[in-house]
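Example for tutorial group B:
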């Protein structure tokens, strides 16, 4: 029994080495999908977070509708809507950018709620202090509230970034050769799905570990500056 375990581990090692070139390219694509979609999602999230905290009911309704749609529909459906709606439509956007926009659209809703909670956690005294020295509401938000809110939002944002990284695996269903797609393709070619999926899991774990380290580093730096 123990010998079988060691034999399988040796086989996994061979599989890992055999597919390293394919997985390195797939890892690069996965990182591109994740970084670009999260970057766009941050701006989407901040925009809708600001809409939610306004006193204008129409804007609040728009933000709530967007968040409701994202939460109420599966991510894979959203990605397919962007893919078939954009890559084959008059805009002729590539499959990569269709997947990026689908992921950004999805993550933006959750980031909006993270930013909203962080902004509303800042005491009213901060706003009053900004207004007392002659700042406008926009200046107070940009220079006083948002920097503090970002520091408070960073831990949950880090979790959302990790979720976004793992969600990028769904881009495989629109034909992008990211990590999960490579694993299933190689598994289909070799009839050894389990080994290739385990190898893909190792790559995802490494990426999550790196992302966790980066977020923790930024969080510590911001804590020191504060």
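The residue assignment follows.
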């Amino acid at each position: 029994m123990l010998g079988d375990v060691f034999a399988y581990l040796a086989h996994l090692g061979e599989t890992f080495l055999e597919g390293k070139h394919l997985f390195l390219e797939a890892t690069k694509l996965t990182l591109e999908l994740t970084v670009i979609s999260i970057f766009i999602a941050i701006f989407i999230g901040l925009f809708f977070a600001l809409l939610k905290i306004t006193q204008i009911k129409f804007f609040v309704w728009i933000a709530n509708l967007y968040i409701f749609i994202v939460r109420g529909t599966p991510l894979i459906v959203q990605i397919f809507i962007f893919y078939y709606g954009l890559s084959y439509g008059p805009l002729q956007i590539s499959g990569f950018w269709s997947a990026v926009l689908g992921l950004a659209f999805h993550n933006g809703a959750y980031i909006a709620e993270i930013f909203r909670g962080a902004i509303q956690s800042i005491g009213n005294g901060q706003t009053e202090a900004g207004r007392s020295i002659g700042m406008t509401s926009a200046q107070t938000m940009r220079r006083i509230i948002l920097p503090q809110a970002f520091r408070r939002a960073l831990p949950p944002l880090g979790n959302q970034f990790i979720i976004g990284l793992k969600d990028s695996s769904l881009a495989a269903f629109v034909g992008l050769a990211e990590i999960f797609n490579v694993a299933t393709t190689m598994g289909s070619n070799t009839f050894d799905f389990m080994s290739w999926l385990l190898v893909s899991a190792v790559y995802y774990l490494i990426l999550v570990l790196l992302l966790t380290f980066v977020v923790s580093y930024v969080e510590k730096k911001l804590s020191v500056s504060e």
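The domain at 21-225 is CATH 1.10.3720.10 (MetI-like fold). Compare this with the pattern of hydrophobic and polar residues in the output above.
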